[in-house]
Specification:
307 residues; D-Maltodextrin-Binding Protein, domain 2; ten-stranded mixed sheet; two-stranded antiparallel ribbon; 12 strands; 35% helix; 20% strand; disordered C terminus
């Protein structure tokens, strides 16, 4: 591990690291993978960390490869910035526009669709802006702005914050004023603040479900999983950091990790992971109609035969 990488991980703090156990012992075993005893640095969104998903599945990877995973939870923007700086080997995020930019600029390689859930607009049960059951996310946000009802924004360039800003733009509304509070926090803390303020916020469904017992908020606008608007879809992708840009990255282990997490067995484990009896993530790497293309930008509909 490079000195720069060690300093980065130390700066994040031990509390942000998950699944660092599982390194192989000192005995020699010719059947062990070549990456045995190595460490993979994964920068990822707070939602995959806060929901407990990574703790649940990483034990399998660490046992299979004899390698450890340092999972560093950040907003999508920060996770991609860490990867751009060569401070991670692989990145798992959920803001497709930012992912495409990362790939176009040559920092990433082997992007794969991984899983999805959706976003929901949550708020106090008394719903002062009257958005409950709205079929349009943009109309709901417009109603919140018109009522100047308190709205908590993560304000952290995360995937959720990026989606929120896109929704405000689609609604033709520029949020601001005392009713609009930017916290610069992860999703779990933003939900806590919204509870304390009796406020609305945008949340990914997985984090909301995992935190629901500790907060006093209800889903007022559903995403597409519950037949809500498609604009609230929340796909996740995974990419290796390009070793041609940063030769210090552990590319072999990153590629092993991508192959592992998109495999049928682990995709099934993602599907089966529940909190309080509810599914949090839905696999997308394995389907009845698999797409064998490694990477195409979002919205690209060209024919692969066209050069």
């Amino acid at each position: 591990m490079s000195i720069q990488r060690r300093r980065f991980i130390a700066a994040i703090g031990a509390g942000a690291l998950a699944g660092a156990a599982g390194c192989a012992g000192s005995g020699v075993d010719d059947d062990r993978p070549a990456v045995s005893g190595e460490s993979l640095t994964l920068t990822t969104t707070t939602s995959t960390y806060d929901t407990g998903l990574l703790d649940e599945i990483h034990t399998d990877f660490e046992g299979m490869y004899g390698a450890s995973v340092d999972a560093i939870a950040q907003g999508t923007g920060a996770a991609l910035e860490s990867a751009r700086n060569g401070d991670s080997d692989v990145v798992m995020v959920h803001a497709r526009g930012l992912e495409d930019e990362f790939m176009r600029n040559g920092y990433g390689i082997n992007r794969r669709d991984l899983m999805f859930n959706d976003f929901v607009v949550v708020g106090p049960e008394d719903d002062p802006a009257g958005i409950g059951g709205a079929s349009s996310a943009t109309e709901a946000l417009t109603a919140i702005a018109d009522a100047e009802a308190t709205f908590v924004s993560r304000g952290d360039s995360s995937g959720t914050h990026t989606k929120e800003l896109n929704l405000w733009a689609a609604a033709g509304t520029e949020p601001g004023g005392e009713w609009y509070q930017e916290t610069g926090t992860g999703m779990g803390e933003a939900l806590n603040i919204a509870t304390q303020q009796g406020a609305y916020t945008l949340s990914d469904r997985g984090t909301f479900i995992s935190q629901r017992s500790a907060i006093d908020l209800v889903v007022l606008v559903q995403g597409p999983i519950e037949d809500g608007p498609e604009i609230l879809a929340n796909p996740y992708g995974i990419m290796a950091v390009n070793p041609g840009v940063h030769d210090s990255v552990n590319y072999d282990l990153a590629m092993a990790y991508i192959g592992w997490i998109t495999s049928p067995g682990v995709q099934a484990a993602i599907s089966e992971y529940q909190v309080n009896g509810e599914q949090l993530f839905f696999p997308e790497a394995v389907s009845e109609n698999p797409d064998f293309r490694q990477y195409v930008p979002e919205g690209w509909n060209g024919d692969a035969s066209e050069a």
